[in-house]
Design the sequence.
């Protein structure tokens, strides 16, 4: 049975594990609601440290530091999904941790995630468990076409992924992962990509933002656009997929479901991200309650906010050296910079959102 | 000749003097732009201290502390207009201070402000200089009707004001101010109140938000509504009034011009506030660039943002014990709480903005 907690009152403290741009934007949203934040990051000089009165730099598996951190907070959340399971369990002995260990355990692992999605009756790319080079060959044979070998854990922005078009390539790709368990996924020839960013409250309430259409370049999100090309029934279907997933995970907080939109209009679940998501950044300007505020509301046990959209929006990431153009970017839209000291190749330095009058309500 | 400064680059530090809700919302806006903030407040536990990595509690006339603070900042601004003139001059020796000493000197004093407005050819209530009880009687005689005696400096939310309907009352009111210089203003029988929140950039650029209509209760702002009842030509006139004032003050930053709207449609300048303003809080949700971001852009020497409005909005203040209803308020709009530990009678604890689809673009 689920433990019920009182909402965290104004003046209470939300602990955020991870001090990158997502932690930073979560802290800014918490502040709007009169909540304090305490940021835990494994390195000093984290972007989120600049926007809070309370922060600590310590390893993510330092159980003593985590316990002291948890004791100083009224609820704890995180900006990334790869926290060690035993660290989460440890935190949860001290303070409500949202989303919970179960949701994280399932979504941290591509095999358990895809199996979970399939069991819900939702569509995904075909996938096969791969724990050896031999299994990689075998899986490629079953697939009967091109595929992508992906490590089961710790992949992001295309890391831990390899396209394979022969059994031999599949085996070699597996070997390049140095024994890390993987899955072989069938290549989906999608028309475009979309995502649903949604929230589930501690009371089971649900709120989904309009799904944006997403463009990637070099495996990194370039652009999210709302409204997308999805039809009204597809938008409803996308939101229902998110609702089904949120309910089945007994999820509390914001999560994103990345979707492939097939040529025939079918929506395939690609990935679930148990956190605020880059494809939801446009909600800061286009909605009265952003994905960041929505997540904090859920984590604090508050009622969810209204996800209605008041404008059309295009969000573009600012990657690596692109940030040098900040002055001209500032002229053209709502510029967000993340307070990172150094720009590096492929590093997300900020984003810019451009609003247009609402065309499709 | 005006000194030109380079824009403060991302990663630079904006110093904010005053750590109340305006300083807090300025700091949150600076963070979006990748700027660090350093908050100076005369008491510890200031609301803005919760949202920055750098803060100091020290008196506003501690020149040594102010100098050290200024040296750690790339530009300095403030959330209130009553900083001592010598403190501002001292800061300005170390760092660009925006808005500058001249704009503050004029707007800190009701007599110099009203004289300045009159010289620009703008309409105001009739006003008279009052430095003695005898002058108060005399001024009342010239006024020929009801008036309001106001101290020239340090008044806000109705403090330092008294309605007077006889020469005797005028003299007594002056005496109650204990010798503080005052002005006697003619009572304006306005149809309603409005305001323009506008910004002037370091490059002379100008941007004005749509003027809201404002309702006060017990001399405290209750509600701001956009669009107001102003006609399109009145909206343009209101923005032009702000532009004229901003240019004449060589102003840099956001300021507000409070207006009385007479029954015949005339716009009378009531007050100039040389800072972000309570009647502009709705811009956080209804515009891509809020008044807080706009002010930080101006202070940092960045290009101004687009003040266009994407939704209709009603902003209501949450005053004193009203904050106890935070849970039900959170269900009905974009709730902002200011992180104040105690609610007191008449104290602004937060505000709530409710958006509606755009009706008058």
Sequence:
């Amino acid at each position: 049975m689920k433990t019920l907690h009182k909402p965290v009152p104004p003046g209470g403290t939300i602990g955020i594990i991870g001090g990158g741009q997502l932690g930073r934007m979560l802290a800014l949203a918490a502040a709007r609601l009169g909540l304090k934040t305490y940021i835990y990051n494994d390195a000093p000089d984290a972007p989120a440290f600049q926007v809070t009165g309370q922060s600590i730099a310590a390893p993510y598996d330092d159980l003593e530091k985590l316990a002291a951190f948890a004791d100083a907070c009224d609820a704890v959340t995180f900006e990334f999904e790869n926290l060690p399971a035993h660290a989460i369990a440890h935190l949860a002995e001290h303070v409500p941790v949202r989303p919970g260990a179960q949701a994280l355990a399932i979504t941290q692992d591509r095999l358990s995630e895809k199996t979970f999605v399939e069991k819900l009756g939702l569509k995904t790319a075909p996938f096969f468990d791969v724990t050896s080079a031999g299994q990689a060959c075998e899986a490629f044979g079953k697939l009967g076409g091109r595929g992508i070998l992906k490590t089961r854990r710790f992949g992001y922005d295309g890391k831990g992924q390899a396209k394979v078009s022969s059994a031999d390539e599949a085996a070699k790709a597996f070997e390049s992962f140095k024994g890390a368990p993987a899955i072989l996924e069938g290549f989906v020839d999608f028309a475009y990509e979309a995502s649903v960013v949604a929230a589930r409250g501690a009371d089971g309430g649900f709120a989904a933002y309009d799904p944006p259409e997403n463009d990637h370049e070099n495996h990194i999100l370039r652009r999210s656009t709302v409204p997308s090309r999805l039809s009204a029934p597809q938008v409803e279907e996308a939101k229902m997929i998110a609702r089904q997933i949120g309910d089945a995970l007994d999820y509390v907080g914001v999560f994103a479901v990345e979707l492939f939109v097939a040529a025939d209009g079918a929506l395939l679940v690609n990935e679930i991200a148990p956190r605020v998501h880059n494809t939801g950044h446009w909600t800061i300007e286009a909605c009265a309650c952003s994905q960041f505020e929505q997540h904090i509301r859920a984590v604090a046990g508050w009622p969810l906010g209204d996800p209605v959209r008041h404008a059309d929006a295009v969000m573009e990431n600012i990657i690596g050296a692109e940030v040098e153009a900040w002055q001209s970017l500032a002229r053209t839209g709502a510029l967000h910079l993340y307070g990172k000291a150094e720009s590096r190749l492929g590093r997300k330095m900020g984003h810019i959102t451009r609003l247009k009058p609402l065309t499709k309500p």
Residues 126-186 of chain B form a domain with the Dna Ligase; domain 1 fold (CATH 3.30.1490.20). The two ends of chain B are 40 Å apart (CA to CA).
